[in-house]
Amino acid sequence: MKRVDDPMIPLAQRIRGLEMPWNRVLSSTMGPAGAATALGPWHPQEFWAECVETIPEAGDMMVFVFRRMDGAPLAFRSGQYINIDFPVRGEGAEPVSRSYSISSAPTEPWTFSITIKRDPKGLVSPWAHESIRPGTVLEMLGPVGAFHLADYDRRARYLLLGAGAGITPLMSMVRTIHSLPGQADVVLLYHGSAPDRFAFSEELDFLARADFRIKVIYALGDQALGDRAHGDRAQGDRKQGDESVGAASAWAGKTGRLSTALLEEVVPDANGRQVFACGPEGYLNTATDCLREVGVDDTSVFMEFFSGDRATRLEYAEEVALAGEIAEEIASSTEEYYEQQPAALEMYEPEYTADGPVEVTGAPVEAVDALAEVPVEPEIDLIVPDAEVDAAVETEPTTDPTTASAGEVTVADVAPSDEATVIDPRTLATVGEGELTMAFVRSGINVRVAADEFVLDAARRAGVKIGANCQEGMCGSCKVVKLDGEVDMNHQGGIRAREIDAGKFLPCCSTALSDLVIDA
User: Fold this and answer.
1) Is CATH 2.30.38.10 the classification given to domain 43-144?
2) Prediction pTM value
3) Minimal CA–CA distance to 51: which of 108, 5, 114, 141?
4) Using CA atoms, how far apart are residues 133 and 123, in angstroms rounded to an integer?
5) How many CB atoms are located within 10 Å of the residue 502 CB?
6) pLDDT at 488 > cutoff 90
7) What CATH number was assigned to the domain covering residues 157-223+252-307?
8) Which of 170, 253, 431, 491 sits most deeply, having the most CB atoms within 10 A of its CB?
9) Distance CA 369, CA 1 (A)
10) Which residues contact 206 (CB under 8 A, 6 or more apart)?
C-alpha cells in the first residue's frame, strides 16, 4: 500500500492498537454467545485431533495441520504450544509426550498446525516425519504457555528474534498480526544455518511485501558465512536488490551471529519495542546480553526455550502438568453445564436482556492513518520518597534510569530528559480505603487497598485500566510491572519465573504485602 498524494482520495485508515478478536468477548460484562466463548482461549483442554495435511518445509522441518475430532475450534494465543502424546512404541504401549509450538494463527482456529524439525538422533521427530499422515489421530493437551502476544496492545511495536526451529511460535505471531486490522510495527530477525534452510521464507517474503507493518531480516551465522566464501552459489541464495531468500544468486542478507552491533544496525529503536525471542539456549543467552546492551529492559523481553538446563525443563514440565490438572477440572464442570442445556443449539445463542441482545465490549475503536507510526511507550523517571532514595543510593549509588533492571526503583537524582515524564508518587491524589497504598504511575493515582484484597479489584474500582480476561492467574493478560514493593501471588501458569524475576506480576491473583509502585 502506498500513500496517495491526491487530496481528493481519502487516506486508508486503521484502528489504533492490536486487539485479538476474542478480547471483546472476554471483556463482556454479560455471558457471551456459546460459539464466541469457544473461540476464546480461556483454558487448556484435553482433546483428540486428526492430521489433515502435511507440508515439507526447509531446514528438515515438516508442517502438520490438524483439526479437532470434536469439531470445535482450537482456541489459543499466538506463541503458545500444545503437548502431544506420540505412540512411537506402538499401539497399547505408553505414549511419549512432547510439546510443540503452534505455528498457525488463532484467527483461523478450525485447523491448526505444528512444525517439527527432524532430529536424526531423536525419538519422536523421526517417527513423526515418517508416520504422521492425513488421517492420523493423536491425543493432545493445550493450549499451554505464557509466551504469547497480549490480548490488546495499544502500542504494538515488536522485535521478534528467532533461530532455526525457533521460528515456529514467531510465525504464529506474524501470521496473526497480518490477519488483524490493527496498527502494528514488527521487525523479525531470523537466523539460519544456510541460505536454503530458512523455513517459511516464501511466505515471510510475501508478508513483508504485502504488509508494510512487517519487516523480515535474514541472517547467516559465522560458520555459514565461512562455508559460502569465494563466491560459491547455491539454491536458496538471495541476489542484490531481491529480498527473497529463494533468489538464486549471491547472498544479500545479513551475516554473523546475533550481536549488539547487528541489533543496532537492523533495529536501532529496539529499546522501544517488546521482544519475543525463541531458539536454542545459547542463542537466547546471547540475545539476553545483547538486548540489555542496547537498552531493552528485562520487563520487555519474553523468551521461549527450545533447549535448556534441568531447571528450564522442569519449569516446562510443571507448566504442562498444571495445564493437565486445569483441563480435567474444566472438563468435569463443562459436562455438568452441557447436561443443564435444554437444547443443544441454545448454547450458541447470545445472551439477552430486557433491551435486547447483549453487545460485547472491548478496546475503544479509534481510527488512525494506516501509515502512521506506532507510538512509543513514554519513558517514566520515578522519584521515590527520601527514605527509599537513601536506601537505593546505598545499594546502587550509580543507578542510571536507562540501565536500571526490572523491579529496580530508578532514582532521578539528575535533571530528567526532555522526552521523559517525571512522576513523584507522593504528589498523586489518593483514593480508596485500606492499610496499604498502591501508586499507579502511568495512571497518575494512588489507590488504598486492604491486605486481603486483590490488586486488580482495587485498581479497577479506582478507574485504573488494566486488561484482564480469565482473572484466575491463568491467561496472563493482566500482567504488569511492579517497580517497588512486595506481593503475594497465587497464579495458575499465567506467568513464568523469568518474568517474575524481571519484576512482573499478575494483579488478578495478587495481594499486597507492602506499599506498591506499579507501572500501570
Assistant:
1) no
2) 0.71
3) 114
4) 18
5) 19
6) yes
7) 3.40.50.80
8) 170
9) 12
10) none
